[in-house]
């Protein structure tokens, strides 16, 4: 695509005299090839402008920058390169989201689970699906590795482009609050936007709960503002306080779901069982008894949101119910580890106070004796959640063990000290995660439950700058075998 054609998508921009052919757009100088447009991003760690010269040496033919740079190729200056990048990426890849039925999910907890449930329903309806989220990106059955829950706009639009080429009909994606604030999803034309819930997390980045809520609200306030006149739907959790604000911030058609508040899709007569949940589903088409293979009340919310999203996407209710009843768990979410032991071992991705409380309350329903909870808090992440998570582990388990969960650049002992400030009663501190898991598994006996929280599907432990292989499920299995 010619540079001038590409730049037309940014209103009122000054076109440079030269009009080279742009063969790729990149924001990391290592990815520059002859013909690239290199976008300089002012990041949280690096200033991409510092790599502009190296980009030219590697063959970049134009630079998008936030300041004038003295280079021999066209330098286009804009106020905010990150936001301009999203517009250019959308244009460069042929506005792919306008060709997809796009479902976005935001909220503190439940995005990954809900996205997988929706994927299951659409696949049952024989749709070709795309998925973008924490665990991986998927085009049909093909999985693609990912670093962020919501990738940057260049990766995002290029994956959407591949989805269009590979005949994907519906794309389902998790939309993190970081992505909304950083404009990673600008240019995405959502048809359905889902809100799961808002509880404490990421206050290191968003500072206050209101700022965090406003980040989430961007998904809804922008919904319905595109040129695409298809009907847009905001699917909102009626039991969450934030919904009251979102309803006045969107021009989309509102559909609600909930358990306690009157809503379009409701669950009543809930029975929580050891192998799943049962409830009566209320829909605009009447009532139906449902049996889910997923445990915990929180998963009923995820199921309701998924059912509503499929319903507004014109999938017949009967088929939606059939599919949701078949849906099995998501990797690392309430995943049982079975090595023939006479107690339960559960690996779960709970890394916020609310999710930890939900999971431990669910475990309390079936634990016959002791509950061991192995809990840590990530380094370089919201420190204010640390004492809260420790307090919850102490409140809902008999044997809390505090350990490390991706300490990153922080000293593991200082993270544990932050956790201890919220601890109550007796607890153990075992900084080495493997030792913490081994200790719990060696001590557990018939009828006990061992919860290993925080890392779920992760297969690594980040200590300093190093990434070590570490999979809670494999470590637990090994410990069970060694008993
Ligand atoms: C704090 C934060 O959100 N950072 C994100 C941000 O990075 P950044 O733009 O600040 O990047 P940077 O590393 O400072 O680099 C600046 C620029 O220099 C370029 N560069 C840099 C080095 C070099 O040698 N050459 C070079 O060209 C980089 O490519 C970049 O363009 O933009 C990047 C691209 O989108 C993200 O990958 C990165 O996520 C980091 C890795 C991260 O850990 N983010 C977490 C907090 C996050 O975003 N989490 C949410 C999920 C949260 C949840 O829901 O629980 C997520 O969506 O993943
Ligand atoms: N609807 C829900 N409400 C509260 N907690 C939930 C809900 N769904 C799942 N959880 C808990 O939160 C954990 C994370 O769930 P999930 O991965 O679906 O959320 P997420 O929003 O994608 O998280 P992340 O932002 O880290 O990607 C689960 O392991 C479970 O403990
Ligand atoms: N998306 C979350 C994942 C946290 C997972 C936990 N294991 C940690 O490393 O803190 C984050 O980046 O904050
Ligand atoms: Mg997720």
UniProtKB/TrEMBL annotation:
Subcellular compartments: Cytoplasm
Span of domain Mur ligase central: 105-310
Protein residues bound to UDP-N-acetyl-alpha-D-muramoyl-L-alanyl-D-glutamate: 148-150, 176, 182, 184
In-chain residues carrying the UniProt-annotated modification N6-carboxylysine: 216
Annotated motif Meso-diaminopimelate recognition motif, positions: 405-408
Cofactor: Mg(2+)
Alphabetized UniProt keyword annotations: ATP-binding, Cell cycle, Cell division, Cell shape, Cell wall biogenesis/degradation, Cytoplasm, Ligase, Magnesium, Nucleotide-binding, Peptidoglycan synthesis
EC number: 6.3.2.13
Recorded metabolic or biological pathway in which this protein acts: Cell wall biogenesis; peptidoglycan biosynthesis
Reaction(s) catalysed (UniProt annotation): UDP-N-acetyl-alpha-D-muramoyl-L-alanyl-D-glutamate + meso-2,6-diaminopimelate + ATP = UDP-N-acetyl-alpha-D-muramoyl-L-alanyl-gamma-D-glutamyl-meso-2,6-diaminopimelate + ADP + phosphate + H(+)
InterPro entries: Mur-like_cat_sf, Mur_ligase_C, Mur_ligase_C_dom_sf, Mur_ligase_cen, Mur_ligase_N, MurE/MurF_N, UDP-N-AcMur-Glu-dNH2Pim_ligase
Residues covered by the Mur ligase C-terminal domain: 332-456
Principal location class: cytoplasm
Binding of ATP, residues: 107-113
Post-translational modification note: Carboxylation is probably crucial for Mg(2+) binding and, consequently, for the gamma-phosphate positioning of ATP.
Pfam families: Mur_ligase, Mur_ligase_C, Mur_ligase_M
UniProt entry tagged with the keyword ATP-binding: yes
GO terms assigned for molecular function: UDP-N-acetylmuramoylalanyl-D-glutamate-2,6-diaminopimelate ligase activity
Binding-site list for meso-2,6-diaminopimelate: 381, 405-408, 454, 458
Record-annotated Mur ligase N-terminal catalytic domain positions: 22-89
Similarity comment: family membership: Belongs to the MurCDEF family. MurE subfamily.
Protein task: Catalyzes the addition of meso-diaminopimelic acid to the nucleotide precursor UDP-N-acetylmuramoyl-L-alanyl-D-glutamate (UMAG) in the biosynthesis of bacterial cell-wall peptidoglycan.
Protein name: UDP-N-acetylmuramoyl-L-alanyl-D-glutamate--2,6-diaminopimelate ligase
Originating organism: Lederbergia wuyishanensis
């Amino acid at each position: 695509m010619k540079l001038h054609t590409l730049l037309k998508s940014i209103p009122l921009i000054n076109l440079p005299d030269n009009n080279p052919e742009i063969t790729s757009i990149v924001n990391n100088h290592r990815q520059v090839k002859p013909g690239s447009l290199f976008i300089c991003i002012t990041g949280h760690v690096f200033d991409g402008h510092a790599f502009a010269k190296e980009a030219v040496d590697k063959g970049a033919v134009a630079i998008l920058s936030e300041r004038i740079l003295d280079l021999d190729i066209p330098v286009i200056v804009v106020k905010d390169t990150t936001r301009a990048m999203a517009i250019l990426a959308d244009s460069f890849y042929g506005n792919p989201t306008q060709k997809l039925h796009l479902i976005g999910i935001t909220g503190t907890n439940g995005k990954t689970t809900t996205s997988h449930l929706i994927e299951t329903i659409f696949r049952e309806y024989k749709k070709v699906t795309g998925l973008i989220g924490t665990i991986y990106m998927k085009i049909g059955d093909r999985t693609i590795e990912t670093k962020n829950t919501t990738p940057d706009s260049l990766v995002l639009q290029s994956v959407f482009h591949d989805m269009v080429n590979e005949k994907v009909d519906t794309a389902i994606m998790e939309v993190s609050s970081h992505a909304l604030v950083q404009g990673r999803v600008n240019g995405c034309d959502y048809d359905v936007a889902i809100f799961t819930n808002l509880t404490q997390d990421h206050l290191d980045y968003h500072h206050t709960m209101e700022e965090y809520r406003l980040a989430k609200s961007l998904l809804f306030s922008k919904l319905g503002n595109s040129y695409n006149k298809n009907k847009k739907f905001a699917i909102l959790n009626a039991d969450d306080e934030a919904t009251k604000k979102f309803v006045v911030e969107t021009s989309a058609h509102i559909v609600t779901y909930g358990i306690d508040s009157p809503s379009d899709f409701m669950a009543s007569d809930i029975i929580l069982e050891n192998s799943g949940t049962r409830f009566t589903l209320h829909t605009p088409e009447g009532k139906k008894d449902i049996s889910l293979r997923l445990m915990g009340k929180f998963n009923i919310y995820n199921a309701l949101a998924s059912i509503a999203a499929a319903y507004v996407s014109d999938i017949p209710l009967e088929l939606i119910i059939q599919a949701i009843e078949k849906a099995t768990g998501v990797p690392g979410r309430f995943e049982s580890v079975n090595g023939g032991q006479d107690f339960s071992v559960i690996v779960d991705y709970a890394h916020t106070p609310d999710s930890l409380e939900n999971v431990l309350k669910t475990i309390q329903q079936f634990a016959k004796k002791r509950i061991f909870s192995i809990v840590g808090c990530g380094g370089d992440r919201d420190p204010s959640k640390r004492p809260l998570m420790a307090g919850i582990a102490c409140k809902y388990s008999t044997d809390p063990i505090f350990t490390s969960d991706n300490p990153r650049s922080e000293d593991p002992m200082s993270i544990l000290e932050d956790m201890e400030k919220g601890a109550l009663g007796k607890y153990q501190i075992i900084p080495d995660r493997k030792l913490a898991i081994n200790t719990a598994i060696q001590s557990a006996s018939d009828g006990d439950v061992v919860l290993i929280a925080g890392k779920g599907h992760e297969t690594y432990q980040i200590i300093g700058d190093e990434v070590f292989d570490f999979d809670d499920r494999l470590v637990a299995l090994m410990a069970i075998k060694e008993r």
